[in-house]
From TrEMBL, chain B:
Keywords: 3Fe-4S, Electron transport, Iron, Iron-sulfur, Metal-binding, Transport. The keyword Cell cycle does not apply. It comes from Actinomycetospora flava. Pfam families: Fer4_15 (PF13459). It comes from the Bacteria. This is Ferredoxin. The keyword DNA-binding does not apply. InterPro entries: Fe-S_cluster_ET. Its cofactor is [3Fe-4S] cluster.
Length: 398, 64
């Protein structure tokens, strides 16, 4: 190995609070250093360019998930064998249990219910006029949609979003944020541990289907808890944060709001552009199974690699003027949901939830504006908001 | 050149159809279906971008 092939290095901590608060200037610097950059701080190789990230995300043979997709060994021990932390062919059976419910063809029968829920929620918000896009919408709607689909009792649902937030943070370094949020993770884990039990689950829900898989020998009891958790954790913070970002966008970009009011069929492509810009899950890790070369720089076998989806989605070589929401961009090939065998199983549900909420808002609200400054969240792995204070006016004044 | 749909992988997200409706549609069973046989040179760009939009990598362009 010659030193000429060694990737450039950075001592920046991509998970530090100051970087999390404003990551994109730092990510642009890292991207400019080279196709792969070694992070001395965490002993990881970071991919930030769209073409590399996308190809690497699809290449499970060279970059395995089976050793875990988090940074630390401690967290990976908890993940190994789950749908996230496995490779084909084992992965396919685990994914199948989720995707038979979550693939759009499985979701057709719940579309009307989700749409009715969205309209009811928005009617309540419009009647109130002022509300918080995070506390009153983004942290309510996906939580109840997913919990209803799984068939969870109402009592205890308040543990889901904080638990999911803490879980996602755990994929990164065990820094102050993770430590401060451990109690949420513990409360959620304890509660979830009691849910792999038919007597707690509404008949006909996804939870019951998971318990059927246990009875049929396709899953163990522990596997059932992990599978339920996969639905719940993944279904929370990601959608919560994408919806928060969308509401902020509407309030700040009157051209976007006017466009979706005029033609609601534009809502899906606007959601994709928000996902590209925000990329709620910034990235997951893989382990190189062999030496891999990116543009002449070598990642050694056994190295931990960060697939930085948030950086890839703002690569100017792929998306010109990447930091701006473009109304006509339609970036359907973004990597906010990952890509390939491990692509988010719930992406169809996320799209359905967003479309339902957008349609309800565009139908019932006439104007939408901010009443204060949005507050960003500090989670180092899931980008999002703590607060987006909003005011709306009804479409047809009473 | 033809397009192959891997039905074991396709989940019916429909991004192929959204990108290139002249080439792809999601059928009644919720799987991607290719509407044209041979991908002629004039269809190639649309076929490639539609296949590229597949989030689960279920679409392949093959030499016929």
């Amino acid at each position: 190995m010659t030193s000429a092939l060694r990737p450039p290095a950075t001592d920046v901590d991509l998970f530090a609070p100051d970087v999390v608060a404003d990551p994109f200037p730092v990510l642009a610097e890292v991207r400019a250093l080279g196709p792969v950059v070694y992070s001395t701080r965490h002993d990881i190789y970071v991919l930030t360019r769209y073409d590399d990230v996308r190809a690497a995300t699809g290449d499970w043979r060279s970059l395995t998930s089976a050793k875990g997709v988090a940074l630390t060994d401690e967290f990976n021990e908890q993940l190994v064998g789950s749908v996230l932390a496995s490779d084909p062919p084992e992965h396919n059976a685990l994914r199948g249990i989720l995707s038979e419910k979550l693939a759009p063809r499985g979701l057709a029968k719940v579309r009307d219910q989700i749409s009715a829920d969205a309209h009811r929620l928005v009617a309540d918000l419009v009647a109130r006029r002022t509300f918080d896009g995070v506390a009153d919408v983004a942290r309510v709607f996906p939580v109840n949609v997913v919990a209803d689909l799984v068939g969870l009792p109402v009592e205890g649902r308040e543990k889901l979003q904080p638990g999911a937030d803490a879980t996602f943070a755990g994929f990164g370094p065990f820094n102050d944020y993770v430590m401060a949020h451990l109690p949420h993770l513990q409360a959620y884990t304890e509660w979830m541990g009691t849910m792999a039990d038919r007597s707690k689950l509404t008949p006909g829900g996804w939870g019951e289907a998971v318990m059927d898989a246990v009875d049929e020998g396709r899953l163990t009891q522990l596997g059932a808890i992990k599978t339920l958790s996969a639905y719940l954790v993944a279904g929370m913070d990601t959608t919560v944060n994408a919806i928060s970002a969308l509401m902020r966008l509407f309030a700040e970009r009157q051209d976007v709001w006017a466009a979706v009011k005029a033609d609601q069929r534009l809502a899906p492509q606007f959601f994709e552009e928000v996902l590209r810009l925000e990329t709620p899950v910034v990235g997951f890790f893989r382990v190189a199974t062999r030496e891999i070369t990116f543009g002449g720089s070598v990642v050694p076998a056994g190295a931990k690699v960060l697939l930085h989806w948030a950086a890839a989605n703002r690569d100017p070589a792929k998306y010109p003027d990447p930091d701006t929401f473009h109304i006509d961009r339609k970036p359907l090939d973004h990597v906010a949901f990952g890509y390939g065998p491990h692509a988010c199983t719930g992406q169809g549900l996320a799209r359905m939830e967003a479309a339902a909420l957008l349609e309800a808002l565009a139908t019932q609200a006439s104007t939408i504006e901010l009443t204060g400054d949005p507050v960003r969240g500090r989670n180092p792995v899931v980008r999002g908001y703590e607060s987006v204070p909003l005011r709306v006016t009804p479409e047809k004044p009473a | 050149m033809i397009i192959e749909v891997d039905r074991a992988v396709c989940e019916g997200h429909g991004l192929c159809e959204q990108t290139s409706p002249e080439i792809f549609e999601v059928d009644e069973e919720g799987y991607s279906r290719v509407l044209v046989g041979e991908i002629t040179p004039d269809l190639r760009a649309a076929a490639e971008s539609g296949a590229r939009a597949c989030p689960v990598a279920a679409l392949f362009l093959l030499r016929s």
